[in-house]
Structure formats: structure tokens, C-alpha cells
Amino acid sequence: MNPHVSVCMATYRGAPWIAEQLQSILDQLGPEDEVVIVDDASPDDTVERIRAMDDPRIRLIARDHNLGYVQTFQEALRAARGDLLLLADQDDVWSPERVVAMTRALHDVEVVATNLATLGGPDRIRGPYGQQDWHLRPGSSDHRLRNVLGVLIGNMPYYGCAMGLRRSALDTVLPFPGLLTESHDLWIALYGNLHRSMRHLDIRSVRRRFHDDNASPDRPRGPLMVLRSRWMLVRACVELLRRR
């Protein structure tokens, strides 16, 4: 039987945090579920620590060359066998209610997005435009155009580590287009909104660990990098509409 839930994770130099994160995930999964991990040629002992968990629900794919986190997440999604796919970073900790809440929502929509709290810090996360508590609201789930515009201007808190999708979405979401050099999570969020199948949940389903090696930067980018990122997302919208 195919697993009901597949957790898809990309790892790279995650040795200090991976065991704690995996335990918070495995505690919420059933015996037929799985965690698909693609390691992007970590130079540390990340792979050894994953294997030391010795849990049959973990499926590890260890690369011998580095391709970057976008391609690594794509490989994890392709390898997943479950009906419902939940994305995970290597260095966070899942909240206990996460799997139940997100899988319930995915019975009705193709993409679900939740909120973040910080690990060892406040629940609230500051936004890029001075918001004291930057979070998704359930009532904005159906504001498709507003959500898409918010993504394009960098003002929608869609984080891959707090998102999930149904297997049916992969027919359009994959393969990631070559233009997508970052922000695979925003690509999925754009899909959910453009295809009118997005649900925002008010829960803070993951506690994010902030450190110097986070793939998502927590510092402002320069103007040129911002413009390049915004243009990439505009092109992503065009590509999703073309695929539709």
C-alpha cells in the first residue's frame, strides 16, 4: 500500500539539528507513512545521523554531488509515494498538531499553508514591511489575486517548511522550471492560488530555528537581487498559467 503521508525533506550540512527535527516528525506519523530525505552531498555526518535513527519509515537518498536545495526538494517530491505531501526543513521542530491539521485541510484543497513560530523565541515573526506579527489568515485563503500580488511584492509569508500539497498537484508543479533558482515554496503557493485551491491555516505548525546557515535569508536583500527575484516570480506566474 502507498503511504498516506509523505514528508519530503532536503538536507545539507544538517548534522546539528536533524535528529531533533526527525523525531518531532516521526512522532506524528503512522506506520504506513514515510519521510523521504534527499541529502545534497553533505560534507558532514548528516547522512550517518539520519541512518542512526534506524526507523523503517525513513527513505534516504544520498547524493554524491551537490545540486542545490531547489533540485533536491524536487527529487524528494518525485520520490514520494504518499497521497499527501508535507514539506520539511532539516533544522526546525514540528508542532504536535501539525500533521492532523494539515492533512485534514488537504482533503478539500491541493495546497495548504500554515504559519511559523520561532524555536526558543517568540511566536510572532516580523514582516518585511514592519509588521509585528507576519502571518497568514484563514479569511484570506480565497483572495487569490491579492495573494498572488502579495507574493510578487514579497509580502506573503509562504514558507515551504510550513506547507503541504496533494499528489494531484504534482502533475502541474513538477518539474520545477529552469528559471526557478530559488523559492520553490513560492512556486507552489502561486500554483495553489492561481488554480483556486489554497487553504491558509491559522496554526503555527512549525518552530523555525534561525541560524547563519538558513537557506531563506532573514536579512534584507540588495535592490538588484530583489528585482531579479521579483522578475523570476512574474515569469513563474506566466509558466503556471501556460501549464494550466
- SSE series: EHEHEHEEHEHEHHEH
**Average pLDDT level:** 93
Radius of gyration: 17 Å
Task: Report the CATH C-level class.
Answer: Alpha Beta
Q: How many separate domains?
A: 1
List the strand order in the largest sheet.
3-2-1-4-7-6-8-5
Quickly count the helices.
8
Principal-axis shape equals globular
The CATH superfamily appears as Spore Coat Polysaccharide Biosynthesis Protein SpsA, Chain A
Distance between the termini: 30 Å
Task: Indicate the low-confidence ranges by residue numbers.
Answer: none
Share of helix, binned? 25-40%
| Strand residue percentage | 15-25%
Structural class: alpha/beta
CATH architecture tag: Alpha-Beta Complex
Largest sheet data: 8 strands, mixed
Number of strands: 8
And the CATH topology? Spore Coat Polysaccharide Biosynthesis Protein SpsA, Chain A
Describe this structure in words.
The longest helix is centred in the C-terminal third of the chain and has 21 residues, at 223-243. This protein has one domain: Spore Coat Polysaccharide Biosynthesis Protein SpsA, Chain A, CATH 3.90.550. The protein is α/β, with parallel strands linked by helices. The two termini are 30 Å apart. An 8-stranded mixed β-sheet has the order 3-2-1-4-7-6-8-5, with helices on both faces. It contains 8 helices and 8 strands. Helices cover 33% and strands 20% of the residues.
